[in-house]
Design brief:
The chain has two domains: 54 residues, Homeodomain-like (Arc Repressor Mutant, subunit A); 108 residues, no CATH class. It is elongated. By secondary structure, it is mainly alpha-helical. It has ten helices and no strands. GO terms for molecular function: DNA-binding transcription factor activity; transcription cis-regulatory region binding. Pfam families: TetR_C_16 (PF17920), TetR_N (PF00440). InterPro entries: Homeodomain-like_sf, HTH-type_TetR-like_transc_reg, HTH_TetR, Tet_transcr_reg_TetR-rel_C_sf, TetR_C_16.
Length: 190
């Protein structure tokens, strides 16, 4: 008589994390429409039904996989000047190695799928409730929200030019040179 073998138990947290990692890379590279749950499940070695059980739907998986937050500590000090926060975001978002997201910040990857109302709403909420609100809350004077969005557009534009389009000057520019020029533009808006 052969001994009974216990079925292998799956580590729920590790499986969930692996699914999120696989989804981040696929969504970043292929966009929302070009990514299928079966592909993500196959990459992790699980049944596609498990993906649905953990995340509810492709939209649920996308929302969680592509969720972004202001990097830890960037806005912790309520008195930190906007120029300093923008400099930190330039370093931590635009110049950071985002290899786990296919080489770019999730915000930039989300732009590829912004034609979907749900994705666009998630992107808008994350930008407006995160980065842009932090800027606007620190700006005095008229047009604080408009100036905050202009600063956001500068950072987003730099990220797109550097990691999506790959323009020669921005892609080749070292962080130290870019930060000086970006600080001048942000300073003018603050």
């Amino acid at each position: 008589m052969e001994p009974k073998t216990e079925p292998r138990r799956r580590d729920r947290a590790a499986t969930r994390a692996a699914l999120l990692d696989a989804a981040r890379i696929r969504f970043a590279a292929q966009g929302f429409d070009g990514t299928g749950l079966r592909e993500i499940a196959a990459e992790v070695g699980v049944d596609p039904a498990l993906v649905s059980r953990y995340f509810g739907s492709k939209k649920g998986l996308y929302a969680e996989a592509m969720r972004m937050e202001i990097p830890t500590g960037v806005a912790a000090d309520p008195h930190r000047p906007v120029v300093s926060i923008a400099d930190a975001l330039l370093h931590d978002v635009v110049y950071q190695d985002w290899s786990r997201y296919g080489g770019e910040h999730p915000l930039l990857a989300m732009l590829r799928s912004a034609g979907h109302d749900d994705v666009r709403d998630q992107l808008r909420a994350q930008l407006c409730d995160g980065y842009l609100r932090e800027f606007a809350d620190r700006l005095d004077g008229p047009d604080a929200h408009l100036r905050a969005e202009l600063i956001g557009a500068l950072l987003l534009g730099l990220g797109v030019l550097r990691s999506v389009i790959g323009t020669p000057a921005v892609s080749a520019a070292p962080f130290d040179r870019t930060r000086v020029l970006a600080a001048r533009m942000v300073g003018a808006l603050t």
